[in-house]
Write a structure and sequence with these properties.
The complex is a heterodimer of chains A (79) and B (164).
Chain A (H helix, E strand, L loop, with lengths): L1 H36 L3 H38 L1
Helix pairs in contact in A: 1-2
Chain B lengths: L1 H12 L4 H4 L4 H28 L8 E5 L8 E5 L6 E6 L5 E5 L10 E3 L4 E4 L4 E4 L5 E3 L8 E7 L2 E8 L1
Antiparallel strand pairs in B: 1-10, 2-3, 3-4, 4-9, 5-6, 6-7, 7-8, 9-10
The chains are: A mainly alpha (79), B alpha+beta (164).
């Protein structure tokens, strides 16, 4: 039961983290659009790279939390 | 009371629990957020691709005005390097010429010349730039106006490039 509660807290924390990463990505898209209109081409590639890294982080966190949840369910069924 | 009874019968006929209908699990929300993250990453890559593939306009050498076209303290609008790029030529009281992009670096409104303040003012959000070097003086803009490199050849003013 304690492990399930810990899992719930972990899930919530990771959800908040993913939401934060998405907000940062929104800011990056806005900055990239601004740079595109100002023809500051040198900003665009780092912005896109950072956005991809943030997406990879989000996907990794999602994969981790889903697999953790599944392990927890299997453990619960066995118990 | 009769209304409540009718409503209860309606609910019996259509047993849809709206609170369950709108329920979204945390797992679904996490997937939705990650999908949004992927879409935003795609948009960033698309913006970078557009910026890199769109060829930077070459700076042609072009006559933009005659010296006599602009009185001291006056200004003249022109387009450079393409017909889609509005610019402004400013002549100060001493007769010196300066030219800048007319597009405000804040939100792309057109700046106008205010000779009494020796400034280029953006009427949209009260931004202001120096008419001497294009640097921001007041308001929301933080980046200077791109300067058009001009050269006087006899009585003609020739644009030769852009300094961002």
């Amino acid at each position: 039961m304690e492990t399930r509660q810990q899992g719930s807290v972990l899930f919530s924390a990771i959800l908040v983290l993913i939401a934060t990463l998405v907000v940062i990505q929104l800011w990056l898209v806005a900055a990239a659009l601004d740079a595109l209109l100002a023809r500051q081409i040198e900003v665009l590639v780092p912005t896109a790279a950072a956005s991809i890294v943030l997406f990879a982080l989000s996907a990794g966190l999602l994969w981790y939390v889903v697999s953790f949840d599944e392990r927890l369910r299997e453990w619960g069924q066995r118990g | 009371m009769a209304d409540a009874h009718e409503q209860a019968r309606w609910r019996e006929d259509f047993p849809v629990r709206w609170d369950e209908d709108h329920y979204m699990t945390r797992r679904e929300l996490a997937k939705f957020l990650t999908l949004g993250s992927g879409l935003l990453a795609s948009v960033s890559v698309l913006i970078a691709a557009i910026g890199l593939t769109r060829a930077a306009p070459s700076a042609p050498v072009r006559t933009i005005a005659n010296v006599d076209d602009v009185p001291a303290g006056g200004s003249l609008l022109f387009r450079y390097p393409t017909d889609e790029d509005p610019c402004i030529l400013v002549r100060d009281g001493a007769g010196r010429f300066d030219a800048f992009s007319q597009v405000c670096t804040h939100l792309s409104c057109a700046v106008v010349h205010r000779p009494e303040q020796q400034a280029l003012a953006c009427p949209c959000h009260n931004g202001s730039f120096s008419a001497a070097d294009g640097r921001p003086l007041a308001g929301p803009p933080t980046r200077r106006l791109p300067r058009i490199v001009i050269e006087q050849q006899g009585t003609k003013l020739v644009a030769r490039g852009i300094e961002v």
